[in-house]
Structure prediction request, 587 residues.
Amino acid sequence: MGRVPPTPSGPWAGLLLAASVLVSRLQPAPAQTSGTIVLTPPSPAVGGTVSLALQDPPQDFVSCSWYRSAITDQSTRILTYFPTPPVQSNGPAHTGRETAGPGCSLHIAGLRLNDTGNYTVSVQSPTGDVTSTAVLRVFETLPQPTVTPNQTLALEKENFTLTCNPSPGADTLLWLHNSTSLTPGDRLTVLNVARGDAGTYQCEVKNPVSTNKSEPSTVTVAYGPDAASIEPPGPVTLRLVSPLTLRCVTDCVPAPSYRWALNGTDTGESGSSLTRNPTSWAQQGTYEYRAHNSVTNLTAQATVDVSSVLETLPQPTVMPNQTLALEKENFTLTCNPSPGADTLLWLHNSTSLTPADRLVLSPDNRTLTVLNVARGDAGTYQCEVKNPISTNKSEPSTVTVAYGPDAASIEPPGPVTLPLGSLLTLRCVTDCVPAPSYRWALNGTNTGESGSSLTRNPTSWAQQGTYECRAYNSVTNLTAQATVDVWLTGPDESPGASSGLSAGAIAGIVIGSLVVAALVGVGASFLYCRCRKDPPQENGAPVQVYENLPPTAGMGPVAPLRSPPDPSPTYQTLQPRQPDVYEELKK
Prediction:
């Protein structure tokens, strides 16, 4: 742009302007010509700089003036430029952003939109004046345009319209459909809408300094549902309880609502697919679906036939497979059969069950409940399933009924008497399920034995007395007990061994001993008297009886024979040292 010429002020400006006018009037009027003004850059933008220069200006010009209008009106004069010496004289239309340059060019900085307009230059030259006018347009950087509406639902075979709202500074406007150019224009109307018209629409605006594009506006074309079908196509044959999946197929926008029916009855399903595990013959037949488009108000439908076939029944199961039930309480068993079973029966110890006061079956017979359990309810339970081509039975489920212990007893029953050192075996007898735990006590003191029987070899008097067994059922929390008295007989093991006997026991033993001794004496006397009355005879003659004489101090003559002594043995009544011990009688 070169150096900015000084701007005269005060009286000098007026003198220079007056001299310029006077010279022009004194000289003969030169011919008027027109020139061309060149803009650099040709499309200036807001905030930028532009230069307006006369193409091929006269080399001998003496002054030039620029006007912000199409005419050389003094009120629109921006400035006057004198090349020798370089002087710039500002006019009424000067804004402080304009300067003159070599060749009478005009430079404008900080461009604004309102700088847009006509600019005229007038050049004075001795060889002829030149006047030229040009249009300056200042361009803005375009803001993003908008498209209304931004969402459109158009019915097939009808119309829709979109409107672009650009900035006034836009020179051109184009429409894009799915990024492909359409015809220009700020309004776009699509007639007789087809499905291919769906997608995104944008408007694109341009000027020489910028290009901008709107956000996409989405157009949805509503149509359908078209002819419908069901996958898989029918007829469909499957086994009971096999998965059945049917899928509705149709072309429809927006997505339709669905309704499924079986043999004309609504199933309540509302999705595009239906999944089931048919467990009965009632779930076979004609399946139908209806697809309805609430926008187009159209409906399509399709049907498929589904049939089931019989299966060979797999083995059912009973849960639980082990049950411990308390007597007089309840228990429940559940059968898990194949859905292909037509009938279900319960067996107890291989015998069929039927509902009774204490036997309750669920409506489908799958659940068996036994109330107020009795001992006879124990055993094995099975469920048996059938259909027309097969029968199958579960593995046994074992039920144990817990009860007892009932009244206990000890074998052998008491009182038990045995010699010291003899084997003593006691057995606790009771009816109890499960088997109870046992505790044995002697005279109230725990013996440490925990089995159903107790075996000992009593070697002291301390091991006689009252034996007690206790049987405890940890499931029923019941206990039963029994006792037996055990007495020992035989010689003392050591002095004072009987000190453990009670006074009553000692008295009883003494009395018993006296009675036995008396009986023995009476028997001996009776035998003696009888033998004396009836001496022995042999062949009708008396038998010689010899008497064993006691030895004498020396041998002497044999004494004469005398009557034979009583050959019967003589018994002596002995006084017992202990009331319960007897000596063997000697002959």
Summary: The first strand starts at residue 32 and ends at 34. The mean pLDDT is 80. The CA atoms of residues 395 and 514 lie 72 Å apart.
